[in-house]
Design brief:
Blueprint: E1 3-8, H1 25-40, E2 45-48, H2 60-73, E3 78-85, E4 95-99, H3 105-121, E5 125-130, H4 134-137, E6 143-150, H5 154-161, H6 163-181, E7 215-218, E8 221-222, H7 228-236, H8 256-276
Parallel strand pairs: 1-2, 1-3, 3-6, 4-5
Antiparallel strand pairs: 4-6, 7-8
Helix pairs in contact: 1-6, 3-6
Amino acid sequence: MVKVIIDPGHGGFDPGALGPTGLREADVNLAVAKRVANLLSPSVQAVLTRDGDTSPGTDVNTDLQARATIANGAGADYFVSIHCNAADSPAANGTEVYCYKFGGKGEQLARAIAGFLVPALGLRDRGVKEANFYVLRRTVMPAVLIELAFITNTVEESLLRSPLFQAKAAEAIAQGIRAFLGISDPVNGGNEAPSGEELPSETPGSGGGTPMPAPGPFKDVALDRPTAAAIARALERGLIRGDSDGRFRPSDPLSREEAVLLIDRTTDYLLAKVKAAGINIDE
């Protein structure tokens, strides 16, 4: 049986990158990795480098070394490390997958995973890239490192926090691994949640096993809705609000009173930006 190491990045002393509202990368990585391992079973032997908020090492250097040592010592066939991206700019966004060098099975595995993950998440495709990451360089088997989305981006942090989004990411990663390995049976071995967890709700009438679309900024605005990004930006800027149930009701008509409120909020937002730039204008 093929053995795949699933490596949830960070953990224990190292929370990884932090989102604007405090979401920890280590927690997202672990949640997605556990679902991937569960989905791959029983046709693939999936081994986690950690299954709780712990670290294989005692500091950053020994932690990375320990992850490679676990994979090499286990005689694994492939290594898949799961992370969330981070950047100084809060505008940075998208999904990318890394391999050590192009031209081998690592690249092939990375492209197989990206081929499922990018369309499943619906975020910007940042491509498949080479990188000299320690866990890619020091593992003796083909290895990839996945950056799901930018935890430092307000919109993508909210998605990464969602169990539905995490489930969609996990299923896409598992599909990519299975496709690369030539395993034709569908991803259905992980319908049972890992111990102590609950699976997210499913679409009514779906027959089970298919997660709902990842939520957007409101309960009734799915990530794959064409206007989801614009609605999320308007919400972040304080221009719009949802109802008491957390819904936006995007198809409802706009009343004259609501139009006035939207214009007023937009004006206040723009004036604040202008003043912050040191420009004085008459209001």
